[in-house]
Design brief:
This is DUF4974 domain-containing protein. With 391 residues, the chain is an alpha+beta fold. It folds into 2 domains: 193 residues, no CATH class; 188 residues, Jelly Rolls, CATH 2.60.120.1440. It contains 9 helices and 26 strands. The strands form 4 sheets. It has an 18-stranded mixed β-sheet that branches. Helix 1 packs across helix 3. It is elongated, with a radius of gyration of 25 Å. About 22% of the residues have low confidence.
Length: 391
């Protein structure tokens, strides 16, 4: 009796990328010719591999490394589904789905979801007087005129008209304007009048003074921002969040301060001092270090991180580094302005890591998650996307 070979999906990708030995390639070809179903599966995997090379790179790894086994595909029987079986799967997936491949996935109501692209909403500038402006483009530049910071977006200058009485009052206290980047709006690059640059992520808010004080440069943020601070030894740059403050002279760092989440401060270069709002706890960070302030602001710790993973969002890459599925869905909610219902997910969440371009559609992102996390997505009548484990 002829031996019934078995092949893993990872072996097929290795075959297409020339990573197998001559003997292994021979076995793959024998399996391919064994039946029509094997040939069909071979062609599907080959097309997925080509799409990967031409469109975008996706690498998602299921996070249980106790057993490294690929999903088994009998060589004479088609058993191919777009998911992994159990915690044993821990292979690299590089798949971008075309419309036809998207329909081949296990997702429900995919027609409603897959056509949702990366939204393009505008940031909002709210002046201290209450006037609101919608800012086009993705770059905002601040110029100083008579001590006031003016916002320039797509060549348009926005400023607050004030009476002499207003100006006189503001000499006593700093007055802050506000820039809000809503969910699904992508990221904005902000050039301050002192030469500092700020990248503001989706679902984030920056508050800045109409003019910097003589002794310091102070801004406030909620959400996530990357700072490239122009050096000024006479005026430190201070970033406030609801739970902490970061003080620098000139450096590059990232702050993630979303509501109900730990505050993460990551240093790319230079040196920063992080202090909790109670001023009871503080740390000085070195490049490559990340401080973690608990949600209750009662614990401040430091850990080593890979800087490129933390700040990839400002280059248009959604990075997933050892995140649970629920954490990933929070990121997706901010990037695409959608809401998920996760009540049907089990308590024991899986851990994933990888990256995908933020230019990709919601359908592509969810298709990959469906494949590697054994879940399906369904659009409900309330507008939320229900997430359910596939048994």
């Amino acid at each position: 009796m002829k031996k019934e070979y078995q092949v893993t999906e990872s072996e097929l990708f290795d075959f297409f990328n020339g990573k197998l030995s001559v003997e292994e390639e021979k076995e793959i070809l024998e399996w391919k010719e064994a039946c029509d179903e094997n040939r069909e599966l071979f062609d599907v995997m080959r097309k997925e591999n080509l799409i990967l090379k031409e469109v975008v790179r996706v690498q998602l790894i299921k996070g249980d490394y106790s057993s490294i086994q690929g999903r088994i595909i009998p060589r004479r029987h088609r058993a191919f589904k777009l998911k992994y079986w159990g915690v044993a799967a821990a292979i690299v997936v590089g798949v971008i789905f075309s419309v036809s491949l998207w329909q081949y996935s296990s997702m429900d109501n995919n027609k409603e979801i897959s056509h949702v692209g990366a939204p393009a909403r505008a940031a909002i500038l709210e002046l201290s007087g209450g006037e609101r402006h919608y800012l086009g483009g993705s770059e905002i530049e601040f110029k100083e005129q008579d001590g006031m910071q003016l916002a320039v977006s797509e060549g348009k200058v926005v400023y607050d008209k004030k009476t002499g009485e207003d100006v006189e009052k503001e000499e006593e206290v700093l007055v802050f304007n506000k820039i809000t980047v809503p969910r699904g709006a992508g990221l904005y690059r902000i050039l301050l009048s002192d030469g500092s640059v700020i990248w503001l992520n989706s679902d984030s808010r920056l508050e800045y003074p109409e003019k910097f004080a003589l002794e310091e440069r102070r801004v406030r943020i909620s959400g996530e921002a990357f700072f490239d601070v122009a050096r000024d030894t006479m005026r430190p740059f201070v970033v406030e969040t609801a739970l902490q403050s970061v003080s620098v002279l000139g450096t590059k760092f990232n702050v993630s301060a979303y509501p109900s989440e730990p505050v993460l401060t990551t240093l790319a270069s230079g040196k920063v001092k992080v202090m909790s709002v109670s001023e009871m706890d503080s740390v000085v960070l070195l490049p490559g270090e990340q401080s973690v302030l608990s949600v209750n602001a009662d614990n401040l710790s430091v850990r080593q991180v890979k800087i490129s993973d933390v700040v990839s969002w400002k280059d248009g890459i959604i990075n997933i580094e050892n995140m649970s599925l629920r954490e990933i869905l929070k990121v997706v909610s901010r990037a695409y302005d959608v809401d998920f219902n996760t009540e049907l997910l089990p308590a024991d969440d899986i851990i994933l890591r990888g990256s995908i371009s933020s230019d990709e559609s919601l359908g592509v992102f969810l298709a990959v998650l469906s494949k590697v996390a054994d879940v399906k997505f369904k659009m409900k009548t309330d507008g939320k996307i229900e997430v359910q484990k596939i048994n």
